[in-house]
Amino acid sequence: MKTTCPCCRTAPPPAGGSEQAELHCPACDHVWRSGGMVASYYAACAGRNEKVPGLAQKYADRMNSVAPLLHPGMRILEIGCADGVFGTMVKSRMALHYAGIEISPDAALAERNLDRIHRRPAADLDDAPYDLLLSFHVLEHLQDVHAELAHWRRLMKPDGRLTVEVPHRAGHPLLENDRHPEHIHQFSPASLAILLGKAGFTPTRISTGHFESTVYSDSLRIEAQVTLIEAQKTERLLARIKTYLPGPLVVYGVGGDFRNYVEFLLPHLQVIALCDADPACHGRIIGEHPVQAYDPAALAGLPVLIASTRHEAEIRRTLQATGLAESSIVGLGQIYG
Questions:
Q1: What per-residue confidence (pLDDT) applies to 2?
Q2: Which one of 18, 88, 253, 309 has the largest count of C-beta atoms within 10 Å of its C-beta?
Q3: pLDDT band (50, 70, 90) for residue 127
Q4: pTM for the whole thing?
Q5: What does DSSP say about strands 75-79 and 130-136: parallel, antiparallel, or unpaired?
Q6: How far apart are CA 274 and CA 255, in angstroms?
């Protein structure tokens, strides 16, 4: 049995216990054990949604979370789509591509209504990329959750989103432990968030109390997006700036906000001049530009990026007094807001 936490990987649990004993991570509050069912067991399961009370409540709860993420033409992959009922509900909302992974015989039912069904695990898929991946009550069954999430990440677009739901701890507020033989993991909000972070996702919303069934009435749901690398973040910032300032520009203000939010972008911008009202800054060289006072005659007509939040209103009035149009003045709030 692994002696490091499957989620945070940094804190070994207390020693002791048998091979089948539950282990608890004191760092992220995750609980896990070895074992679990083999793939052939799940491949033989069928009709898992038959005669299950509360299905309408379960799907309504999930739709409330998923609906805001939908847009026409998007590609969705549901990991463990069962008979495809939820996917059918999503497809009824708008025109989109909805695929599922299902290794059980229920895949035959899902094939009737979804766009594509894969009867093999995510590790074997090659039809990426997807805008949105959905996984409801899957991760708790899998031994190597890090490996599985790596496969999911590979299948997603650079700006893809992920929704994961698992039992919150034991899945019911009156149960201390989840003794279901299929469930290897008992997630806490911290352990699931850390797991996703290490797998290349940034959690955007965490909530508990979601209904899966009458016995698993407390589920943990996390929405996340693919974590952007530095180059991707810079590219998006530049795209925002160029929405307002597509050509040559003046930067006004070289204080703390400038150093934090603008200076690192200078090599990528068509900056004609750096200006500041403080004479003590004049003559200082930043990159290729000497800091100077704003000269409305020499810089006439050039749009201005105000690189100060504290003094923006004052600078904006100064620029307007020179005759510069309001549409040519852009603040940091427009870029970063």
A1: 58
A2: 253
A3: confident
A4: 0.83
A5: parallel
A6: 11
